[in-house]
Design brief:
Length: about 240
Amino acid sequence: MPTQEKTGKDGVGGGGRPHTPIFSAFLNYEGGSLSSYHNLIATCRAQSPDHLVIGHEIPLTDDCPLITNLGGELISKGYRTNYQIRSREVRLIAEEGGQIGIVSLREAMHAARAAGLDLVEVAGQADPPVCRLMDYKKFLYEKQKKEKEARQAQRTEVKEIRLRPKTDDYHLGFKVKQARGFLEEGAKVKVRILFRGREITHPEIGRELLRKVAEQLGDIAQVDSRPKMQGRTMLMVLSPE
C-alpha cells in the first residue's frame, strides 16, 4: 500500500502549509497496482503541483473537481462516484433499474467491482443516498450525446428556394407558396436567384424579383438578410415573424 501524505489537525500537511486542495481524492487500492497509483499521482501533480491532497478521510468539497482511481482519469464533478461517495449506507439500485435495497457502502462497492461497473450517487439528498450500478463513462457519453441532439433540434432549420431572372409569375407564385409552407413550420428561407451568361449584367432584375417575394410573404416573414451578390447568385434570407 502506497504511503499517504499526512495532514495535521488544522488541515495542515506535513510540510506545514494549509491544504486548500484544487484536487481531492478518495483512493482505495485494494485491487489497484502500484504503477497505476504512481500514474495517478503524476497526473494530479501536473495539474496542481502545490495543492494535492491524497488520502482516505479527506472531506470532499462541492466546488472542486474530483479524481477517481478508475484508470487514473480526471472526472469533473457531476455525480459522486465510487470512493467519492461519503455515506456509510446507500440505497442500491441495480444496473437494469431494480432495487437491491439498503446496504453498506462497502457492500455496494463490492457489488460494483464484482459486476465491473461504477457505483454512482444519483440522489445524494435522499436518506440514505440513492446509488446505482452503471458504466459511468458510457452514461456520460450517452448524456452528452442526448444534450448535443437536443441542441441541434433547437437550431432553426434553413430551407432554400431557387429562382431565375426569367421566372414568370406562375412559377413565382408556386415558389412563394413553397416558401410560405417552410416559414409556417418555423424555418428560415433562403431565396436564391441564379444568373447565367449575360444575365449577371442585370442584377436589378434579381433585386426586383426578390422584392416581390418579400412583399408577398410580408404577412408572415421579415427580411433577415437583404439581397446581396454571392458569385453568380443573388441571395436574400427570410425568417418567420
